[in-house]
Write a structure and sequence with these properties.
mainly alpha
Amino acid sequence: MAKRGIQLKEKELATYVAVLFLFGMFLGFLCLKLAAAVAGDEKSWVDETYIKQIALATPSFDLYLYTVWEKLKHLFLYFLFALTWLNLPYTAFLVLRQGFLLGYLLTSVLPHYNIKGAWLVFSYYFPQALVAVPIWSFCFFLAWHAWRERNTLEYDADNILGLHKLKLLHLSGKRVVALMAACFAESALEVWIGTWFLQKAAGVLF
């Protein structure tokens, strides 16, 4: 019964995340269309020179370390917010933001570059998504679980980081190490593999 309950919670969470992500993509599409109507179509698409500059960027170890730090910082902030009333609002914001960015980007490149534009976006994001999607799915589940369980505890506004709330996240030492290792792996895929694929895709596109 406990296993079945967890599966139901996972399906419920996956449904909410999928709906929010798709809604974020729609908002990105709508935002670009409104921008195109105001500024003109020629100003709304991703500029070819900008894409070439990104594709010609040379990955470095300093960039890798910076990327690792950013990802670790985002995870830390997420779990910090997960202990407060911002738990679900912040989760919704993250999902909507990612959907918005992807929707905006796809709407920008597809009409101008057709299927090659989709290949350009896919080539950069797919390698890092192999790690990022499992990481954030796991984090969302922990925060979702903490929010559900937290309703059974007495809320103490002056004890936001109380031990009883930390325990709700179920962040054991092994899980923390695994998440950190995943951030290092995701950063490597983004900085080196993603950039390499982006350069190849840009070579085909241009």
